[in-house]
Specification:
CATH superfamily of the largest domain in chain A: Zn peptidases
Number of strands of chain A: 17
GO molecular function (chains A, B): hydrolase activity
Structural class of chain A: alpha+beta
Shape of chain A: globular
Cofactor (chains A, B): Mn(2+)
InterPro entries (chains A, B): Amidase_Cbmase (IPR010158), Bact_exopeptidase_dim_dom (IPR036264), Peptidase_M20 (IPR002933), Peptidase_M20_dimer (IPR011650)
Oligomer: homodimer
Largest sheet of chain A: 9 strands, mixed
Protein name (chains A, B): Zn-dependent hydrolase
Keywords (chains A, B): Hydrolase, Manganese, Metal-binding
């Protein structure tokens, strides 16, 4: 049974936390100076534990085990949402380092832009499985400020570097540890979650085209208020989605932008970022049909035409049965009675890596369920426990 | 009958249009370098036509007639909304200059920040009538970027300058010419509007306090989505306001901000800028009562508390009967059969100046009703015609 050096693991995590520190969290948007500093720091850690470090043309940092196989791949992402938590993806990457330090035959990878600062998102995991084309890179822009991805890569010093691909047959499976980002574990007093599957996110942009006008001179009958059409569609979604969703579906409006956004101007256009998630494709398709019908109805009733464009359409991933068995056995050994099986409501790099090899995930509890916010946190004893569960499971699975 | 030099009037307007030019309009936010340049340019024009120019501590530019009275005050504002039209307030200011050039005994004033780039709005006209305190100035911040008004005044070189007050008894009345900002004139083929009264704007900020969370990890039942509570309140306003509004009431949501505004984050807070307008105080009060009831209902039903704060509460202004008579007679003389009486749906400096002296307004048509947008425009022959109507009316009123 490989024993994880929990103290060293926590020390590594806390050292990484200093890069881009923001209050008790971090601010490391993809390809920002802070993000690139964390990638260079990680390469030093990978070299330190005997792996061969490299960084590729999309920013993936990879530590390759030099000894004989069978190998496992362990990792997650190292960039953060804006002003967000210190664990999130960093936890999965540093768990890989901890397993390597414990002598397990693992390659460790930090995939770039899981957080989707750039259109498309999951750039690193999509790239390493061969599902990110040069055209995709040419088209993608920052969701924060519109900067082209190519420019961001050049500014980060990555232009022209080759993009690495997974070596077929090298890995027996991929493990990703992550915070739960919810309160299912905490509310039941549990400390470990064995993930059964990962929801897919279908992300949409809804644009409304109105007429910018003075808010006093234009009568209610004359105006074409793009913001009002947006509010009516969102209210209709709120009324209808519960009729077609699944038990664990979620749907979220993350942004509403009225242009120009001033008190005395009727908005000339409006943009809405809307997404829904589920583990079941039929349920996702049912929600899509409802969304399309509501947009069609909006276009029948409203003066401001609505245009629906899909920004992402991932496939839900089901975790590998043998790897889940290894995780469950390890959880029962290390944390008897305080673990459970659960789906992941969030998207993760594992959903792309699962297209090339068996994959599984382990969740740590999230204090108060807070995520994508600088106050995100997990008890240190839970971090250490889950890292040990993953190490034990990795050994079990390698031996199976 | 004083004849206006229409060619010179249009040349002045087009010269001013070059300062802060944006496409076919202008971008001159209050106290910006472009705005201050236009104020200095105006002072040169005022001196040119024999007036004594000055600028005061709130940015009001004043041209004082040197001869004997009775005097009129003529003017409007010179700053613009962001990326907005070339006429709007500039038209009223340059009409004052045209009347001065024609030898009429007028003082000309460009009041600062009618557009409300800073909280409170109408800084110049409120200041000159003694209704803007030093405390008001201390508290006000930019609605665009949060900059304190004091800092903006200092950056514009206005810190420490005294603020001028209207000289009691000096003026027989105040005339303001403005674009209609609607399609009432254009749609009826009319060229001149004699304004009967000015609506009051009651501006509100509605803040919703939720819990920022991950859009996948947090179930629909657990989440406190501030954006969703905002959408539901706005949908309720859309359902209820038509039951209590007046015939010419307007209500507008100019901005909806979800924080942090990212695709995969449940908004932790939301802010809505909402306003309504009417010429009747009882109708304004009815709309206020409905808004307050809907916010109370939102707080009964929703998990995200809503807080309502009033950002402005103006009083509607009724135009002076004798001045309206002079305008009507001049309109019938210069534009027989193509003028009408009409209320103003927009707020104007005249509503504050009307607290200290008789005041009246004249509207020019707006092409397509477009306003607060760079495409705003009025036919040159209509501009010239209305300027002549105002000159004729001014002489009639002075002689009455």
């Amino acid at each position: 049974m490989p024993r994880i050096d929990a103290e060293r693991f926590l020390r590594d995590l806390n050292e990484l936390r200093k890069i881009g520190a923001y209050r008790t969290g971090v601010h490391r948007p993809t390809y920002s100076p802070q993000d690139m500093e964390s990638r260079r720091w990680l390469m030093e850690r990978l070299a330190e534990c005997g792996l061969e470090p490299s960084i590729d043309g999309i920013g993936n940092v990879y530590g390759r085990h030099k000894g004989p196989g069978p190998h496992l791949l362990v990792g997650s992402h190292i960039e953060s949402q804006n002003q967000a938590g210190w664990l999130d993806g960093a936890l999965g990457v540093m768990t890989g380092v901890a397993l390597a330090r414990a002598g397990l035959p693992v390659d460790v990878c930090a995939f770039a832009d899981e957080e989707g600062h750039f259109e498309g998102g999951f750039l690193g995991s999509r790239s390493i499985i061969g599902e990110l084309s040069e055209d995709d890179i040419d088209r993608s822009r920052s969701r924060n400020d519109g900067q082209p991805l190519r420019d961001a890569l050049a500014a980060a010093g990555l232009a022209g570097k080759p993009r690495m691909q997974l070596e077929p047959g090298r890995h027996k499976g991929f493990f990703e540890m992550h915070i739960e980002q919810g309160t299912q574990l905490e509310s039941k007093g549990l400390r470990v979650g064995v993930v059964t599957g990962i929801v897919a996110i279908w992300q949409w942009l809804i644009h409304f085209d109105g007429q910018q006008d003075h808010a006093g001179g234009t009568t209610m009958a004359e105006r074409k208020d793009a913001g009002l059409s947006a509010v009516r569609l969102l209210a209709a979604i709120d009324q209808e989605f519960h009729r077609v969703c699944g038990e664990r579906s979620t749907w979220t409006t993350g942004r509403i932008s009225l242009d120009p956004g001033a008190p005395s101007i009727i908005p000339g256009s409006a943009e809405v970022l809307f997404q829904f998630r589920d583990v079941s494709v039929p349920i996702l398709e049912r929600m899509e049909a409802t969304l399309r019908a509501l947009v069609q109805e909006s276009n029948r009733r409203e003066k401001c035409p609505a245009t629906l464009s899909q920004k992402s359409r991932a496939t839900p991933a089901i975790c590998d049965a043998a790897m889940m068995l290894a995780l469950e056995a390890a959880a029962e050994a290390e944390a008897p009675g305080v673990w459970t099986r659960m789906p992941s409501g969030a998207g993760h790099d594992a959903q792309y890596i699962a297209k090339r090899m068996p994959a599984a995930m382990l969740f740590t509890p999230s204090i108060g369920g807070i995520s994508h916010h600088w106050a995100e946190d997990t008890k240190e004893e839970d971090l250490a426990l889950c890292c040990q569960v993953l190490g034990t499971a990795a050994e079990k699975f390698l031996a199976s």
